[in-house]
Amino acid sequence: MNNKKVAMIVVATLSVVVPALVAVLIYSPYKISADYEWLKSIPRFNATINSLTAVLLIFGGVMAKRGNIALHKLAMSLSLFLGVCFLLAYVTYHSTMDSVIFGDANMDGVLSEVEENSIGGMRTAYLTLLLSHIMLSAVVVPFVLLAFYFALAQDFVKHVKIVKFTWPIWLYVSVTGPIVYWMASPYYPL
């Protein structure tokens, strides 16, 4: 089997397995018992990772336009590394903790009518942003992996072609992640 075929199989497999694993962990009623206080800080850690990724993506894009390929490679490699770190932390968090419910002020795991009325349209705005963030984060994974593959394979024509729509989606996901965290942060347990 040639390298291109192996790469495409890896990209396809990861593109299915990663979102499926995340969905199972989020919606599973079974959580790994772990009573570690540091687990509660993972959402803030992930928001920081997303913020750093956004900065690196912008820097990497600027470096590519300026022709500084060495700094472009470094920025994009660090972005991918941070993406892997994010995924590992995200899986750790959601395998041990329940998801936060936006607006659940008393943190009892139920959004009462009173709580829902007190946040009004903010819940719709939050859920719209969250849904777009989640959907685009799942969609962008195979394209990011393909962009890296094309760069490594030195097929720069395909790399540039795929990056034209992959980069803005990845940047959107990296920017909306911290915004989603900031909006939901009052509802995380301390």
From TrEMBL:
Which key words are in the record? Answer: Membrane, Transmembrane, Transmembrane helix
InterPro entries referenced in this protein's UniProt entry, alphabetically:
DUF420
Pfam families per the UniProt record, alphabetical:
DUF420
Q: Where are the transmembrane segments?
A: 7-30, 42-62, 74-93, 130-153, 165-184
Domain of life, per lineage: Bacteria
Protein name per UniProt: DUF420 domain-containing protein
Q: What organism does the record attribute this protein to?
A: Reichenbachiella agarivorans
